[in-house]
Every structure is written in C-alpha cells, then in structure tokens.
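Quarterly update from the structural biology core.
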Amino acid sequence: METLAALAAEIEACRACPRLVAWRERVAAERRAAFADQEYWGRPIAGFGDPRARVVIVGLAPAAHGANRTGRIFTGDRSGDWLFRALHRAGMASQPTSAHRDDGLRLRDAFITAAVRCPPPANRPTPAERDACAPFLARELALLPRARVFVALGAFAHVAVARHFGLRPRPRFGHAAEAPLDGERVLLDSYHPSQQNTFTRVLTEEMFDAVFRRARELADTSGGRRSAG
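Predicted structure, tokenized:
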C-alpha cells in the first residue's frame, strides 16, 4: 500500500516540468540576500501534517524563498506566518510559528498541501504545470481517509479541489463560501493570506480565524456537513 512518506519521496524527486525545475533551482542557487548563508531546499514540496486529519488546507504553490528554502509547505514566508498563527489559535498547530522542517511543529487534525509543488515564476503556474501536479494531489488526498473539510486558500486552490472532485457546475469562489463535494465532504473557501491581501486588509486575522472555526464545526458535524437548524 502507498504511504504518505513514500509519496512525499516521489514528489520531492519530481522533475516533470522544465520551467519549474529551472526556476526553483535558480532561486536556490542565487538566494535572497537575507538568506545568503542558508542552503535552500530547491526541490518540490510534499504535504505536511496529521495523517488522520479531517481538515485539509490546500494552497497554490510553494513560495520561492519560503518553502523552496525551508523544505516545508507555507514555512518561512509571511503567508505561512498568518496560516500557522491561525491554526494555533484554532487548536490545530502545536506552535504559532513555522521556521524550518525540524522546528518541532506538529499539526493536529489538519494537513496542508498545495495544487502545484514547485514555486512558479510570478506565482503563476501554467495549465500544463497544474495538470502535471494534479495526480500528486489526488494521491495525497486518497491517503487521508478521514478528510472531511477542504479549505481552499485562494481561487487557484478552489479550482484544483473542485476539479479533483469533479464538481459540475463548478461553484464560484468566495471568502467563507461553502460547497458540498459529496455526501460527506465540503469545500470551504478563504482568501489567500498573501501580503497583497493581508496588507490591504482584504483578509484580516478575524476573517481568517472565522474560516478555521467553521472548518472545525464542519468537521465535527455528521459527515462534515452543516447540522440541521
């Protein structure tokens, strides 16, 4: 049987997309001045978290100087700072910070992954790159049998989850919007905690916290669905 560890090893060895491989390795070699003394990960990023998670958080792709540097999804960048603070406040992370792969952070009832596993130039994967990564997401989700709530961080992740579950018609993305995926699971949207959204207060910490409170409520109800009344 496939395991998350075996799948992670396969993801981390992937070289399927020449443009993404070239970009991630260029960034890792040239480095940002603030991290010049650090060795970058420079490889694709697998998901991270609790294998018994009922809440799965899906992002767009690793950040060039975040996960591409640290080797863990949403780790080492401002978006990750927002995410892990929110998860800690929601009781799903053992600490409010995520600095590197070996910092002792543990997730409880949550698993974090991404639609694309390498940092794309300008944060814009091509359709071909998106499609090349889709089987990794499908295989990861298949190894999370208790997953009930899928929190999509941004429209790109929303589409990736909707495509995975074959939703037709595809529901519109909107912050805090909910859409049933099947009889047991639900898609819950959030604006991405990018600096573009957080600096302009399109997304506030109160709004972000409300999403994860709702995610826990949905996970706790029968079949992950909103309870009657």
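The chain has one domain: 4-224.
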